[in-house]
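Priority: medium. Attachment 1 of 2:
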């Protein structure tokens, strides 16, 4: 009985691996980027021109991939990053410290589509593009050098803060007493939106920033597209 159960488990794992979505990650920046990824992928180092791939199971929700910069890790994978740090480890188990440009996704299962976006709600650190491979669905690009144009009051080492992160008020964070119907864009969110029209610029920027693609699509994240 035990051997039969082991065989069934191995078969199910093999089927899941076959159905997994591949997210390709490419660094086209002239500097090293350490991608972080949760809940699948952990983290790695990509020197200029290097690529990696992450296998993501169908149905994975609230996935995030972001670029970390200015990192130093020892042989055991412990250290720190100037931007996007995820608790001082190479293989992330939690989200990155803002400011960080985020590729976000929830993979569908069965008849449900994938949802994906680029978010600047936590600020910006590295230019990024993100979208399905094959050209059948919309690819999002946030290629502008936002760091160079960042308002002085939002500047941070290696990145550009969001107004919510900087000021923490309901106006910028869309927190109570504001609601989805009463929280709208601000001059700061318009700054980000003007440079990256397809990216989330504040919490309820859904209509122009959330995209879908049929389940089963592979994806590509490119730093400095």
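Attachment 2 of 2:
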């Amino acid at each position: 009985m035990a051997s039969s159960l082991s065989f069934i488990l191995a078969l199910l794992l093999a089927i899941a691996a076959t159905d997994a979505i591949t997210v390709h990650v490419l660094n086209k920046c002239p500097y090293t980027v350490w991608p972080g990824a949760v809940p699948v992928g952990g983290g790695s180092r990509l020197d200029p021109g290097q690529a990696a791939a992450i296998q993501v199971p169908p149905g994975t929700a609230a996935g995030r991939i972001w670029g970390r910069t200015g990192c130093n890790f020892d042989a055991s994978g412990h250290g720190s990053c100037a931007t996007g740090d995820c608790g001082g480890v190479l293989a992330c188990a939690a989200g990155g410290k803002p400011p960080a440009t985020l590729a976000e996704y929830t993979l569908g299962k069965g008849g449900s589509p994938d949802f994906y976006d680029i978010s600047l709600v936590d600020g910006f650190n590295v230019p990024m593009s993100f979208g399905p491979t094959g050209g059948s669905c919309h690819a999002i690009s946030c290629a502008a050098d936002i760091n160079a144009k960042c308002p002085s009051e939002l500047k941070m080492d290696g990145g550009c803060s969001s107004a919510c992160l900087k000021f923490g008020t309901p106006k910028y964070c869309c927190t109570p007493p504001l609601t989805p119907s009463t929280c709208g864009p601000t001059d700061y969110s318009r700054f980000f939106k003007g440079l990256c029209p397809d990216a989330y610029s504040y919490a309820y920027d859904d209509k122009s920033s959330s995209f879908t693609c049929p389940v089963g699509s592979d994806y590509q994240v490119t730093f400095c597209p």
